[in-house]
Amino acid sequence: MSEPVSALNGASFQGFATIREIGPLGMITLRAKGLKSLDKAVKAVTGTKLPAQRRIEIKGDRACGWMSPDEYLLILPYAEVGAALAKIAKALAGEHHLAVDVSDARAVFRIEGDRADQVLRKLMPVDFDWLEPGELRRSRAAQVAAAIWQQDQGFTLVCFRSVASYVMGLLTHSAQPGSEL
Amino acid sequence: MLILECPYCGVKAEETELSPGYEAHLKRFGPGSSPEEFEAYMFARKNPKGVHFERWRHTYGCGKWFLAARCTATLEVFGTYPAQVSEPPADIIAKILARRPDWKPE
Fold it and tell me: Do A125 and B64 touch (CB under 8 A)?
């Protein structure tokens, strides 16, 4: 097996908030709706319950997020993706679903600090005053799709790997010292 | 700026998070229809000043198509609803009539 490498090799920036590219992170896109074994399959992989609309259930280094009425994002350690896919296939055998390893298709960033929200406020058409803890918000960061949620005194941002350096540029620029809101 | 609430995920999405899908509730005229009907289905679109029904896609969010009733003159939004209907639901019609008593549903 070749060594997994994250999109920007863990690039970081210290402005009025800390920007870190993290990963590689295991991610599975699970598309399914209204299946009776769905909560069991998710529980087996992430140890969390099935999230309600626009929520993310986090448990340690695992999480399950609600992406759309028929799509969930499962987050887990990178090395366990293969085993997790097998667990899902077993739990949902015979039921209409799709589970795909998207770990290498994504880039993940952490934005940390007291003013982490200000970095994102400048980039996303999202009202952060109304964003609740435990809410997963899919939107755009400047010109590209991104999903964010609050976690441990900061935000986690997920975007496509192909635009990782663009997003790093955005976050770096937005976090320049002196540009606080 | 237009803000539409996505009926699938409940996000109050701003216009740039959405993609326009133009007129809603088109009736398809396919094989067996007259050339005039097909031409109208293909090309003729309503362009009202006032109440209009449109398709929108929550592109940067859940990715679902939904329908919206809004006023093209004032940008007032009467409501949004899921796309699995062939005509505007009664509650949307009621909301429009509350604001535009002279308007007549087709």
Answer: no
Rounded to a whole number of angstroms, the CA Rg of chain A reads 16
Query: Using the beta-carbon criterion (under 8 Å), do B17 and A125 form an inter-chain contact?
Result: yes
Residues in A closer than 8 angstroms to B9, CB to CB, are: 53-54, 68-69, 138
Report how far residue B24's alpha carbon sits from residue A117's, in angstroms, rounded to the nearest whole number: 37
Task: Write out pLDDT tens, residues B89-105.
Answer: 999 999 999 999 999 88
Q: Which domains can be identified in chain B, with CATH numbers?
A: 3-99 (3.30.2270.10)
| Residue with tokens 């237009």, as numbered in its chain | B2
Query: Which domains are present in chain A?
Result: 12-174 (3.30.1360.120)
pLDDT over 80 (residue A165): yes
CB contact under 8 A, B17 and A139: yes
- pTM of the entire predicted model: 0.90
